[in-house]
Specification:
With about 110 residues, the protein is mostly helical. The chain has a domain of about 60 residues. Helix content is about 80%, strand content about 0%. It has 4 helices and no strands. The longest helix has about 35 residues.
């Protein structure tokens, strides 16, 4: 069976459904809590193999660490954290979609 393809409208509809019913996360939270260590490893491998945490990332850390002005250092740090959060979410969703694909597979095949 081929993996499903999703349109932008499909994704928008799904995101809205998730936003409208926070209780839908209860079961997912239980499952993810159990799988967190393994998923963390998969996420880290995906980030590193995608080149997300290489030279440019290290340069950003150095820039923040070496900024003398405290206000500017705080601003840069907040930007770096926000960027890494977005990136982690992006890669995490991709990992989640692949995890869903694996969960739909028949283990007997």
């Amino acid at each position: 069976m081929a993996d499903p393809e999703y349109s932008a409208e499909d994704v928008d509809r799904a995101v809205k459904a998730l936003s409208d019913d926070p209780d839908r996360f209860a079961h997912a939270t239980e499952i993810i809590t159990h799988a967190a260590p393994s998923l963390q490893k998969v996420l880290n491998e995906a980030l590193h193999s995608g080149g997300w945490f290489e030279e440019a990332h290290e340069q950003q850390i150095s820039t923040v660490a070496q900024t003398l002005d405290a206000d500017e250092r705080e601003r840069l740090l907040r930007m770096l954290i926000a960027e890494e959060t977005r990136l982690g979410m992006f890669v995490g969703v991709a990992v989640g979609l692949e995890l869903a694909t694996e969960l739909r597979k028949d283990p007997e095949q």
